[in-house]
Automatic annotation (TrEMBL):
Annotated keywords: ATP-binding, Cytoplasm, Ligase, Nucleotide-binding, tRNA processing
Species: Candidatus Chryseopegocella kryptomonas
Protein name: tRNA(Ile)-lysidine synthase
Notes on the domains: The N-terminal region contains the highly conserved SGGXDS motif, predicted to be a P-loop motif involved in ATP binding.
Coiled-coil intervals: none
Gene Ontology biological-process entries: tRNA modification
Record carries keyword Ligase: yes
GO CC entries: cytoplasm
Class in the EC hierarchy, top level: ligase
GO terms for MF: ATP binding; tRNA(Ile)-lysidine synthase activity
Length: 466
């Protein structure tokens, strides 16, 4: 059985171009039977293929002494094989609490970040993980119950970036049989026996029932289904890559505009794939199906509505676009400039200028980026700054005062854009919410004798050509 298993391993890795002669491979080893068998098989073919192997183990500190025992076991097994073992430990609960993410999501993030960092530091080619055919079947069912789209039903990818999964051909029973025949010891993760976790419930309860009462070959069936959807997903991905060029444009790093009308011209499942691909292509983010639906629901929402994709990536709707925005652009740039009437000021993000004009030269603009004020009502030195909570003004055409925060809410300006808005101040009074609305107290009237033209122009790269 052992020889047959290794031959099937070689066939699977050759067919899917997972392992080539001379590869340097980081082997992710938890201590469980799957990863122990993976490491043992790679060690068996190491000399034949001239492979270079190292072991990576992440101690999540989630199961107390049991986690530490797993670490010690992996260190010892690696040493017996003469393979260097690299270990990293971190308090996963604290990490997840700080990032406000689930334990499973945080643990995966920590683990894979460590694997990739180690790969780069050591100059290795690939990271091998021990996912098997049962894992794939469980993933397909789990994604089906979640209401996932085509990508979810494609199951676990055989290869993604530097990550390879060379055991996906084998069932868990076959892996355990290999371990028993070779006399390999391995660790059992007690948390895998708890049916309170959805994946464990599928593994321990649901799949055995299906196998016994409906389809004894359910694992193979679900893996075959995953293969079909994987090929369909690849075809869609190829087509979507062409569609993205038509519907989306990267205005700047971390900011992508998606034309709503162009997106709506495609079938709904293509729209879903476009959203997934944009998140992956421009932001290296993998988003679940529920978030995809939330993003597409923005199409029928009011401008200013938004959805958070991850800790630092948001999508909001403006009048004609869905805007993907990475958090660094949200961070408020501190602006505090003393400006003098009649002078021009330019930064990386805007141009502010002012000049004295005659009444006959006054031409009001509808975009509010150009305004005219009574120069006799302002000081010789003004302040251009970020608006602050508590700031208020009297919007042009109104008699009462209004908080700027409420004014921006009324305009349905996304929270991420609010932080960029500046105000022009004179002696403690707001003269202008730049580019949006003048304060009524400073407007020109029939009695105005001295007029100052003020302009505020944000710097932007042009969007989609209409």
């Amino acid at each position: 059985m052992v020889k047959d298993f290794i031959n099937r391993f070689r066939e699977f890795t050759q067919k899917n171009n997972l392992i080539n002669p001379g590869d340097k491979i980081v082997v992710a080893v938890s201590g469980g039977v799957d990863s122990i068998v993976l490491l043992d098989v790679l060690n068996e073919i190491k000399n034949q293929l001239k492979l270079e192997l190292i072991v990576a183990h992440f101690n999540h500190k989630l199961r107390g002494a049991e986690s530490d025992e797993d670490e010690n076991f992996v260190r010892k097994f690696s040493a017996e094989l003469g393979i260097d073992c690299y270990v990293r430990s971190e308090n996963t609960k604290e990490y997840c609490k700080a990032k406000k993410i689930s334990i499973q999501e945080g643990a995966r993030e920590l683990r894979y970040n460590f694997f990739e960092t180690l790969r780069l530091l050591k100059g290795f080619d690939k990271i091998a993980t021990a996912h098997n055919a049962n894992d794939n079947a469980e993933t397909v069912l789990l994604n089906l119950f979640r209401g996932s789209g085509v990508n979810g039903l494609a199951g676990i990818q055989i290869k993604r970036g530097s990550i390879i999964r060379p055991l996906l051909f084998a069932t868990r029973d076959e892996i355990e049989e290999y371990a028993n025949e070779k006399g390999l010891s391995y660790r059992i993760d007690s948390s895998n026996l708890k049916t309170s976790y959805r994946r464990n419930y599928i593994r321990l309860k649901l799949l055995p029932l299906i196998s016994e009462n409906i389809n004894p070959g359910i694992i193979e069936t679900l893996n075959r289904t995953a293969q079909i959807f994987s090929e369909l997903s690849e075809f869609i991905r190829h087509e979507v890559s062409k569609i993205i060029k038509f519907v989306a444009i990267e205005e700047s790093p971390g900011k992508v505009f998606v034309d709503i009308q162009r997106l709506k011209s495609y079938l709904y499942f293509i729209q879903e794939s476009v959203i997934i691909s944009i998140a992956e292509t421009f932001f290296n983010e993998r988003i679940d199906f529920a978030r995809v639906l939330s993003i597409l629901n923005l199409i029928d929402s009011t401008p200013g509505s938004s959805v958070m994709i991850s800790g630092d990536l948001f999508v909001y709707r403006d009048r004609q676009h869905l805007v993907f925005l990475r958090k660094p652009e949200f961070f408020e740039t501190e602006i505090f400039l003393y400006v003098h009437p009649g002078e021009k000021y330019e930064t990386d993000s805007f141009v502010f200028s002012s000049e004295f004009v005659k009444r006959e030269d006054v031409q009001f603009h509808r975009d509010s980026q150009v305004e005219y004020i009574d120069a006799d009502l302002i000081a010789d030195e003004l302040i251009l700054r970020n608006w602050q909570p508590g700031d208020w003004f009297v919007p042009l055409g109104m008699k009462g005062r209004k908080k700027i925060s409420d004014f921006l809410i009324d305009l349905k300006i996304p929270i991420y854009e609010k932080r960029k808005i500046l105000v022009l101040e004179s002696e403690g009074k707001i003269v202008w919410v730049c580019g949006l609305r003048l304060d009524d107290r400073f407007k020109i009237t029939d009695s105005t004798s001295k007029i100052l033209k003020i302009e505020f122009h944000p710097k932007q790269i042009s969007r989609i050509n209409e």
